[in-house]
Structures are given as structure tokens and as C-alpha cells.
Amino acid sequence: MRSNVVFKGSKNGLQLIIDDSADFESVIEQLRLKLESASAFFASGNALVHVPAAKHRLTSEQQKELITLFNNYGLTWQEDIDNASPAVDSSPENQAEEAEADQTLIFNRTVRNGQEVVHRGTVIVMGDVNPGAKVIAGGDIIIHGTCRGIAHAGALGNISATITADRLIASQIRIAHLISRAPDNLDIPECIETARIKDGVVIIEPAQ
Amino acid sequence: MGEVIVVTSGKGGVGKTTTTANIGTGFALQGKKVVLVDADIGLRNLDVVMGLENRIVYDLIDVTEGNCRLKQALIRDKRYETLYLLPAAQTRDKNAVSPDQMKELCEDLSKDFDYVIIDCPAGIEQGFKNAIAGADRAIVVTTPEVSAVRDADRIIGLLESEGKHNPKLIVNRIRPKMVKKGDMMDIDDIIEILAVDLLGIIPEDEYIVISTNRGEPAVVNPVSTASSAYKNIVRRLTGENVPLMTLETNDGFFDKLKKIFGL
Questions:
Q1: What is the ipTM of this complex?
Q2: Contact B154 A131 (CB under 8 A)
């Protein structure tokens, strides 16, 4: 089935591109499925979604329906940033999305309390992930330092994603839809460790 | 051009105002021309700690709104000729001034002074953004408590995102005895998380309470332990290489401090 709805990342948040030729009912249905499959990715809330030129292309009822749907999945509707409708490029958006998922993001600093690194592909952090910080990746997460914050690998549903850190003492480890928290008395590990899903639970083992 | 330094922390009550007052007075003791700027609009304290409350006529907001000239709002310290205070307004709030106005103010002040030291309010909102806007460098104050260190980490992140890299850290209210027993975070634990340069450590000192209530910065007192620590910090800020206090000895508390200060 051809996808009539595509999410694109932009510097102002997410953009939802809707195929004008598709009927609105099927658009809503596809959108619901898409959001359901990626609910963990959006769970952090407050992500802004913007539908280019929504005023011209959708009726107010349709807009309301979209807003309710977004709210259910922790997304926030954003009005048109400016009146000039942003150019909707004709190139297949799916390709751009997949290209980002293939790329690896290298973050060259410590991720500090309150900071969030979000990327569709693999994330490598050259530094620590401090308490209160979050790293969310569509692929794997590799931390060359101490991880004390929250790491979420495979956030788009990839259950074979892994999290590796020189010292893995994360307050929470999330892989795909699974969330596990650190025990209240966690010993500091002495070797590089990897977290992965095995038999439906998150396990941590020395890295190979 | 003088240097603009902001003293910040995120968490309240860790000693930003005390640190501002003592570092400023420390510079003045060295004969440097210093102005302290209270950016905590609506909750001003620096004037009280400096003992200059009753001399306030104009304040920072009067300057930015053009009700007076900058020179009119500056209060000269009662003890040191080269030390000045620009007090905050008490009847307004943080939105009464913008980061751009603060930037301009800092530029104007740095023309006349060797050091401009800004006392930042607690929090990460408008007041914080105003306070750091015009700063060349930042000093982050924390205490050896997990919550204060978390907030310091947040602040360092925000400073970096505003282009203020490599802030310096002051760890305030250290109790050597508790650290030795393992009941208090030690400096290494804090540095490991925050990963910034340590500017100095200040031991817990009852004299700070006395000096704050008297309106006379502790750094003036020659026997206070915190005073010596602040003096060291001031020397480090002027580029001198002063070794850090070490807290690992088996001596009694006073012997240890004597050793630390080389007495």
C-alpha cells in the first residue's frame, strides 16, 4: 500500500505531508497506524507537528480531527509558521526519511541534564550522558563515556537495537517498546556493557 | 575593556549572592575596579549582603528605562573606594529588562571597570537569560548535594547552548569531616559528572551567616576559613596559579585547614 502520509523532520519540529489526492478517511487511518507503531518515539510529548498550508487544504472539521489524534499521541499541533506555504518538494519523502535512518549521528559533547539527542539512525555520543539527559535513536546507541541518563534505542520499533556504553549505569534503558529501570542499588560496571532485548526482556551483558 | 563574569547555579540557596559579594570584595582588596550587578530583579539581596540597602536611590531598571544615568545608579561601597554596586529593582519582575538591554549595560560598565560581576537569579527562565546575556565567562556555584549538582549540570548545558563555553565551578559548603566519612559527595564525584574546571572549593563556615547578617562580606575577615578560600578564588581569576585545597589528611579539622592554607 502506498503511504499517503509522511512525517518529515525540520528545524521547527515535524512536518506532516499529506497526499492531497487521497481521501481523508484513509489518511486518518494510516496516520493512526503510523503513530501507533511509533508511539514510543513520540512519547516524550511536546513534539510540534506542522501541516503545511493546512488552512487551504483541510476543512476545519478535518483539522480538528487531526488535532485530537495528535493530542492522543503526545504531539502538539502547530499553526502555519508563516502564510507563505512552504514548498512541498516533489521528491519522494520516504527516501529522505530512510536516508536519515541510515546515517549515524556523532554527538561530540556530554549530553547534560535537560538536553535531548533525537535521531532516526544510530547515535554515537563521545562523552557522558548525565542524569536527566535523554538519547533517543531509531537505531543503536553507543556511548563512549558514562551513561547515567535515559537511553532509548530502536525508538521506531526496532527490537534488535542495542545500547552500548563504557559505563552503563543508565537510570532507564528503553529498547523499542520495552522500558527497564536501573535497580536501586546498582554496582558500577567495570567493563563496557551492551543492553539488548533477549526473550522479550532487556538484558545487559559485557560487550563483545 | 573589563571582564564580565556571571555567577550562576540553577538551584537557589547554594551561595550565588555570597560568592558574588566575596569575589567582588576580593577584587577590590587587590585594588581592582569592580562593579557588582544584581540581576535578581524583584528578589534583590546583594545590596543587603553588601550592607548598602539604605543607599539605593536608582536601580538597574531605572537605568535601562532611561530614568537616570548609569553613574547615578551606581552605589559606592562603604569600605572600598573601587567597589560599586548596581542594585536590582524590587518592585518589578524579571520581564522588565531584556537580554539585549543587559548586554548593552554590561558593555557600558566594562568600559569603566576591570571586572563586572553579575549575580544571577535562581532558575533557568527570563532572569537567567538576562543575567548571562552580556557575560564573557561564567562561574557555576554548586554544593555537594545531588540536587544542586543536577541543576549545575543543566545550567552548564544551557550556558553552552548560549555560546558560553568552559564555565568554572565553585563547590560551596564542603564539610571535610563528612566527606572523609563518606557521608558527603566529594569533589571528584562532582567533577566527574560535571566535567568542567574547578575554580575553588569553599568549606562550610559559620562566619558566612554572621557576615551576611552584618552586611560585611566574609572575605574581609582574616581568620574566616571561607575568607581564605574566596581569596584563593580571586587570585585564580586574575590568572595566578594557586593550588587547590586538599581534604585528605588524618589530622584534626583545624590542623587540616591550617595545612590547606599553609599556615
A1: 0.79
A2: no
